[in-house]
Amino acid sequence: MKIQISVFGRFHSFEMAYQFFKNNYLERIYTTYPYFALKKIVPIEKKFVKNHLFFELIWRFLKKIKIIYLKNKINLFLKIINDFFVSLHLKKGCDFFIGWSSHCLISLERSQKLGTLTILERGSSHILEQKEILKEEYEKHNIPFLFSNDHIKRELREYEIADYISVPSEFVKESFIKRGFKEERILLNPYGVNLEKFRRVARKDDIFRFVFVGNFSIRKGSHYLLQALYELNLRDTEFWQIGNIPEEIRPYIDIYRMPNMKFLGIKPQDQLYLYLSQTNVFVLPSLEEGLALVIPQAMACGLPVVCTFNSGGSTIVEDKKQGLISKTKDVSNLKDKLLFMYKNKKLASQMGLNALKKVKKGFTWDDYGKRYIENLENIKLNKSI
Predict the structure, then answer these.
(1) pLDDT tens-digit map of 313-359
(2) Per-residue model confidence as pLDDT tens digits over 198-213
(3) Rounded Cα–Cα distance for residues 233 and 230 (Å)
(4) What is the DSSP secondary-structure string of 92-122?
(5) Could you tell me if 221 and 285 are in contact, meaning their C-beta atoms sit under 8 angstroms apart?
(6) pTM here?
(7) CB 186 within 8 Å of CB 290
(8) Which domains, from first to last, does the chain contain?
(9) Is the alpha carbon torsion for 71, 179, 363, 322 positive or negative?
(10) DSSP 8-state symbol, 319
(11) The dihedral formed by the CA atoms of 124, 247, 336 and 323, expressed in degrees to the nearest 10
């Protein structure tokens, strides 16, 4: 097989491309990231990488714009122009083109003209489902909500013309089926983790800690988590938040902040395991998400996971085995899950060991690659029959 990949930015595209590269399936990956950045993550030869770095530099310079409407317009414009340039480089004779949703409409159309089968990577729920969930929540809390209609139209067109859509979780899969997609068009493949980069190291103390890693936003259910921790008031525990804190969540931090809450800021990816190893339970009460990469990363560090079905985590976290599945937007239920972990420390620790075993035996990036290749081989086989 020969496979071409296109992505604006990174996401998990480098790990995907490496799986195809080492199996001699990669024709080329088109990315806006510089080659040296890709090389730090995966050892792919330069001849298999085509960079459009100019678009990444422009976006990084302009994404600090405060006016969200303008920022969305610029982002979409850059994606379209990058997509056009990628389409000019696509090679005839390839078996598959894989592109990221909202990034690749022109390339999808071009690939199909070249006789190439197309797969759309969608890392979140169906865009209409995503909009519905987030719009309801933002309006509930009187927070301005802006979602680009141009972005939606472009993505819906991608859904329509792509031969297949690859998704990382049951939650995302269900959101597409709910919107009328046939199940046979959907490829389910949960993300993986690098076990060399994510591992547990020795604890420095015995303080019981809950930890959240990622963008501390409304979408991630951060306001519900803050309220749950505040109402539990477990004074001999700590809560660590690692990652960006957008302005929308700061009023909730002001309301619910306690001395045992530590907001540690953004940490380098290659140091996350050091922080995760000093905690006891990973928490992600997302309202809408595909499958946060940090879930298998936390599991690889031996942590049990408390997450919602809407986080995508239930695809790899079995309730009461590797963690607990909490109801979305339910503070009382989330409190029960956190309190259970706190009161049953030995059981929580055992769930963490179960989590580590789970990712070791099915959710490394090699496992992800094997599943993807099997999906593509099955598609080719079915097309030839």
Answers:
(1) 999 999 999 999 999 999 999 999 999 999 999 999 999 999 999 99
(2) 999 999 999 999 999 9
(3) 5
(4) TT-SEEEEETTT-HHHHHHHHHTT-EEEEE-
(5) yes
(6) 0.95
(7) no
(8) 3-192+364-384 (3.40.50.2000), 208-360 (3.40.50.2000)
(9) positive
(10) B
(11) 40
